[in-house]
Amino acid sequence: MAKQITLPVQGMTCASCVTHVERALKSVEGVSEANVNLATEQASVKFASESVEIGNLIAAVRDVGYDVATEKVTLPIGGMTCASCVAHVERALAKTPGVLSVNVNLATEKATVEYIPTVTGLPDFRRAVAEVGYEVLPTAEERAEEELSREVRKMQDARRRMILAWAFTGPIILWMLPEMLAGLAWPNPTIVKLGMLLLAAPVLFWVGQHTYVAAWRSTTHGAPNMDALIALGTGASFLTGIATFFAPIPSYAGVSAMIMAFHLTGRYVEASAKGRASQAI
Questions:
Q1: What is the per-residue DSSP string for 213-236?
Q2: What is the reported pTM?
Q3: Is it true that domain 73-137 has CATH number 3.90.550.10?
Q4: pLDDT score of 249 more than 70
Q5: Where in the chain is the domain with CATH 3.30.70.100?
Q6: 275 beta partners
Q7: Which DSSP symbol is given to 205?
Q8: Distance between CA 207 and CA 211 in Å, rounded?
Q9: Which residue has the higher pLDDT, 181 or 145?
């Protein structure tokens, strides 16, 4: 059964280069077809013989003055305890098509692998190592990417909460302006008070729910934080909106939504700064 691999070829600049590389690859015993693309700088090679090694193909390309791009990666390996473990991991990785060299160090519990990126990669290495009973642990790059993704998700979530909070708080502010500037409660005081409650409730108990949960946890552990202060202030303000229907006191339900909206805006600014810092690092 014919096999096919793609080699990334470096150093080609013209059609003549393509011809040289194709001729070199076809000269390798067992190769049935070789097609080189100058635009993508890749060579597609088909071969039927099991005896054709990737090293022979690379040597053929290098013999005519070009090179095959390779990469090196250092993999943290979990589960190795002895020299036999090292041999098992080395053998498993070396057998992976596209791997050119492997060096496993028991002391550092790491494997350095040189490979052709168009032929193999990290998923293949994980699978090969797992098949012999060991584990490829997350690399430093993967941990950094995971941390970056986490910070970006936090930033996006904080932005969503801020936008939702102001979507309800904006109408509250506009509705409060006539009463603040002209003493006019439109259409009447009862409707205004009820409207403030209805608009403030989603800001506090839906969008700002995380703040109340965090406040409860910090307070019950004996270490109240800023969330506890915000929860106390907004909660008391919102309750005045209910109490105003039963006692002659002003309603600050609208103010509670404004406090929460400003708080969530601050959280977004904080998350955004952390996200940009993580991206810069």
A1: HHHHHHHHTT---HHHHHHHHHHH
A2: 0.53
A3: no
A4: yes
A5: 3-68, 73-137
A6: none
A7: I
A8: 9
A9: 181
